[in-house]
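hey so i finally got around to running the thing on that chain from the lab meeting. sorry it took forever, my laptop kept dying and i had to restart like 3 times. anyway pasting the input first so we r on the same page abt which one it is
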Amino acid sequence: MTTSEMAEISQLLDTQALSEQAADYVKQLTPVAPTIQPADEPAPQATDEQKTTSVPDPTGYKLLCMVPEVAQKFDNSSLVRPDTLLKAEEHGTTVLFVLKVGPDAYKDLSRFPTGPWCEKGDFVLVRTYSGTRFKVFGKEFRVINDDMVEAVVDDPRGVTRV
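ok and heres what got predicted. didnt touch it at all, straight out
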């Protein structure tokens, strides 16, 4: 339904030219977009099981990764990092933590003849700004392809983006 058609219908409803029954029918035809209200934290009454179902399961050959927390203070200092710097470092991180592996990840033996490049629980090195970014309860996650993993990192604390 075009905007002009909706305006015309609205005008007819305003002038009471249509019967009440016809007006109800027109209102049913008017498209209504669903709304999703973001939440920074789970509902207080939510169980642990309900909280974990908020994080999606990767499909196909995808990996679900969590972005590690950025330190609030500079190393060996009491200086607090500004919020803009924290967000920039989180956004441009090259290290991710693998939470879940999709059912088809690393199954293609022609592409991965030596087996999986990583597994659940690994810290991995990826290119900056990789993957589909989203937040659940204020925490950033990424969904990446299985072949986007550049390396597995044992201790990510010393790895920084250049």
